[in-house]
Design a protein that fits this description.
The structure is a homodimer. With about 575 residues, chain A is an alpha/beta fold. Helix content of chain A is about 65%, strand content about 5%. Chain A folds into 2 domains: about 400 residues, no CATH class; about 140 residues, Transcription Regulator spoIIAA (2-Layer Sandwich), CATH 3.30.750.24. In chain A, helix 6 packs across helix 7 and helix 18 runs antiparallel to helix 19. Chains A and B meet through helix 8, helix 13, helix 18, helix 20 and helix 21 of A and helix 8, helix 13, helix 18, helix 20 and helix 21 of B. Chains A, B: It is found in: Membrane.
Chain lengths: ~575, ~575
């Protein structure tokens, strides 16, 4: 029991020197990557830069205790930072103490919800977010985030949480562009793109060992930070209008209290839920992918508790909502992290940075951080999901397209909500018109297949329908209509057999429909039979009067039904 | 084409003398039944009594032209009258011209929606109302309606649209009870109950011919109307505080214009939709039940057009929303109605009543009409649905219970909405945790069944799972977790076979999950195979890379998979 809630007891007992060495190497690489990212994501969330660093210390430690993934790297991530900005921006003014306090409240609510969902084993609610909706949402978020950073590249103020708002604000402010800021931003962005795509092959070409090439590539953002900071300091660019990070408190994470007014909590409940679910979904998919590579297991309910604990930690130590990041978890895994201890060492690295390195980022230009974010999030933008879903299924395409469009034009919460709603409605619509195949006997076998796809034998007096859907209220009447139409059109029909091999459930509405069908067929002098009814469905039907009143029989297999209902001569004719 | 939209062209050509005679008899019986009912339902809807008569003339004629049911009797019905009162009561004061005009608007909107749904073939939206939700809603409506009539029996004013409001209002007014009204009401109610349950057996016992006994029973309400009207007139009870119907205009239905202010239309849109859908569902179920008895066919989309035309007719001739009534359609059918012409003759009967009989109901006490309603609607109240659904499935029970409770306590619209929402959520929840059976070979056959229910042969190296649900976003991750758990727990497993006989669809999320499962199993060195994939599912999977990248094969039948994957010695051991 204790070990279920504290996975650290499991891996901690077997921790050895080899694991320690591997975890330490991974921690160094992730720390180098995380320092500029945590500053940048705090900027994206509208918070002071230190919030990003604080959000990467205690939350990581808590996840190391409660989480089940060996490789997941927890901390501030782009999409959740954007959602935080959108949610907190609606209840407080950016830059105020109220804003930071509301971000803590959001982390508290999100952490509380995650822990609660984990304890109540409600991880399945995340399933309401379909893959296409998540892909569409992340793509749209990437576009929103990249656009939101353009103001830092241009060095102009521009507010707005939707794409049209942001573009309009940027357009209005274009004349105020600070050229020096623009040069720094464009150079940094170009450099980071080059590092991302070309540095590693370039270094390998020079004969650099793979691990070193890898570390140097990951250190690319650090190089951009150092270079631009030095340039701003040496050339006195801050006096020329280049916005800089400025003074960052030099301390370990402080103990903070989230604001808890009922009004604020009420307004943040829904955003907190969305942040929790989206953060969880992002996290669990990367955790499971990485775990599978080593044949390890992730317990989704315990992951909820781990992420919840991390967010509660963020709420009380000056952070904001966190989750498992995709890119940094993959880096962690590739660098050889063996246990959550690697995360703990990363936290240690960040703590050292918080105490020792913060004065060094005083002259760091915001444009460089914006460049870091832009290069990071453009990797999230993948419009190919539109083409892929279009090719596979129009319903999935509609859900993606709606999610992207509404996220960009209305906002992140409306985007997710409309995607989920549309997915559910389209699913219900599809199951409301199930595929029903008339089947016949494949010659020389005991198999029954669709008469339109296969050469099969049939009998005009026996209509056999294979219903390819569970029967429930949304399609109950469909079956009534279908059978009535088929039987009134086919005058020779004396028996209707419903083949239930693909009927996984029959709800009360469908039961009443079956009773109505039975009654109507009896009025018409036609028998109603069932075949291949599954165990769980049969268990339930046995509790009702349907089987007693059935105007026909229940057959174990469709072949039994055929042998019993179709007279020998008809069968011989049909099978020829 | 024309004949699709005008079913009258179909049956009208073959109309003969025998059909005419049968239709005439049915029309007489239904007319006798309909006169007091239409006055009473208008009272329930909060409208002047003539509105009920008008709603029974032109709408019936229009349905006779456009409807497909041979037996459906259209007109004012109890549940729709209640819903009209609830909807119109929110936008206008009862007794004002605005109230009547809003009722016309409601009929117009409802008619327009029904016709539109019919033309667009959207009849399936009615399927979102599950049988239990409808049963619960009708039961709760019956209770609400009966309670709402108690004020007429007591002769007191009492407003309110929910059960607690009505009971509180009645309690406050109890002291003002008019004793004469109470005596009339109680006697009329008792008499009508006796007629309903005992008169027919009593008359048959006296040797009355069945048809006459039937007509006399149906005329029971007329007898109550005549007797109490005469009593009130002869004894001058109206001056003693007995509320009477009063002056009813003596005319054919007038030409009326529904109010059309944008505000009003906006407020009535949702109620109109609910009235349309509920009216359609009630109508179509009785129409189909009656049609089946004569092996006739109902076209649901054309029914929408027929009911829509009837409502449009009501909107322009002083009526209010109408639909096909259950009790009166059964009476119509039992009395021998052969074609919609029976309805036309009923309309003629009502038109004569409107012109000639209205002065005679001047002294008709409201208490008698209330008694008519109470006796009619108590037949709708059937709390056994709670017991039946409880026995069959907790999910259906929850939907019924929520519908009944919310309808009584909050209102009709909230009641239906919460029932639908809960049904959908519970369905999604159920399909999010599908039944997955591990199957093995039944000895001596080619059949594979659940290892927990049957004596079957298995092979420790081959895990065969039969997934009993379509794979879609709500359960995609469930399968990922399940397979990862089973494979990490069972170290000997070398092949996983997913038996797809009950998988009716695979959406894009599930496709990505299958790809993830495939990738993870490959990382673990385990093969992934599919068997018994249905045609429509296979068509879709062929458009993707899954089949090319599959870390295993697709087998036509599970038996093929077993033969290919399980080595001969293992099979022999397993089958022993």
């Amino acid at each position: 029991m204790l070990r279920r809630y504290l996975p650290i007891l499991d891996w901690g007992r077997r921790y050895d020197r080899r694991a320690l060495a591997n975890d330490l190497i991974a921690a160094v690489i992730v720390t180098i990557m995380l320092i500029p990212q945590s500053l940048a994501y705090a900027l994206l969330a509208g918070l002071p830069p230190e919030a990003g660093i604080y959000a990467s210390i205690v939350p990581i430690l808590l996840y190391a205790v409660f989480g089940t993934s060996r490789a997941l790297a927890v901390g501030p991530v782009a999409v959740v930072s954007l959602m935080t900005a959108a949610a907190v921006g609606q209840v407080a003014q950016q830059g105020t103490a109220g804003y930071a306090a509301a971000a803590l409240t959001l982390a508290l609510l999100s952490g509380g919800m995650l822990v609660l969902m984990g304890v109540l084993r409600l991880g399945f609610v995340a399933n309401f977010l379909s893959h296409p909706v998540i892909a569409g949402f992340i793509t749209a978020s990437g576009i929103l985030i990249a656009t939101s950073q353009l103001k830092h590249i241009l060095g102009v103020p521009a507010e707005g949480h939707t794409l049209p708002q942001m573009l309009a604000a940027l357009w209005m402010q274009l004349g105020q562009t600070n050229l020096i800021t623009l040069v720094i931003g464009v150079l940094a962005t170009g450099f980071l793109f080059w590092v991302r795509t070309n540095l590693k092959p370039f270094l390998r070409g020079l004969g650099t060992p793979p691990l070193l090439a890898d570390i140097l590539t990951k250190a690319g953002p650090v190089a951009a930070v150092v270079t631009t900071t030095l340039a701003v300091w040496a050339l006195g660019l801050a006096e020329r209008g280049v916005k800089i990070v400025g003074a960052v408190p030099q301390s370990l994470p402080p103990l903070t209290m989230p604001a808890l007014s009922p009004d604020l909590v009420g307004q943040l409940l829904l955003p907190a839920l969305l942040i929790s679910v989206i953060g969880f979904v992002e996290s669990i998919s990367v955790a499971q992918t990485l775990a599978a590579k080593k044949r390890q297991r992730i317990d989704p309910d315990q992951e909820l508790i781990g992420l919840g604990a991390a967010n509660l930690g963020a709420a009380f130590t000056g952070g904001y909502p966190v989750t498992g990041g995709f890119a940094r978890s993959v880096v962690n895994f590739d660098a050889g992290a063996e246990t959550p201890a690697a995360g703990a060492f990363t936290a240690l690295g960040l703590a050292i940075a918080a105490v020792a390195l913060t004065p060094l980022v005083y002259y760091l230009p915001n444009a460089t951080l914006a460049a870091t974010i832009i290069v990071a999030v453009l990797g999230l933008v993948d419009l190919s999901i539109l083409r892929k879903t279009w090719a596979y299924s129009r319903a999935d395409f509609a859900a993606v397209a709606a999610t992207i469009l509404v996220t960009l034009v209305v906002g992140v919460e409306a985007g997710v909500a409309s995607g989920v709603l549309l997915s559910v409605l389209l699913h219900l619509y599809k199951t409301s018109r199930p595929h029903v195949a008339e089947v016949g006997l494949v010659r020389g076998t005991q198999h029954f297949r669709n008469v339109n796809r296969h050469q099969v034998g049939t009998d005009p007096e026996v209509l056999t329908l294979r219903v390819d859907e569970s029967l429930y209220f949304v399609n109950a009447r469909f079956l009534e209509d279908l059978i009535q139409r088929r039987v009134t059109d086919g005058c020779a029909i004396r028996h209707v057999v419903l083949m239930f091999s693909a009927v996984n459930a029959v709800d009360y509405s469908a039961l009443e429909s079956l009773e109505a069908i039975n009654q109507r067929l009896r009025d018409m002098g036609v028998g109603l039979h069932l075949s291949e009814v599954k165990g769980p469905v049969m268990d339930r039907l046995r509790k009702t009067h349907l089987l007693d009143e059935l105007n026909g029989r229940v057959f174990l297999s469709q072949f039994d039904a055929w042998q019993a209902l179709s007279p020998q001569p008809a069968r011989q004719t049909a099978a020829q």
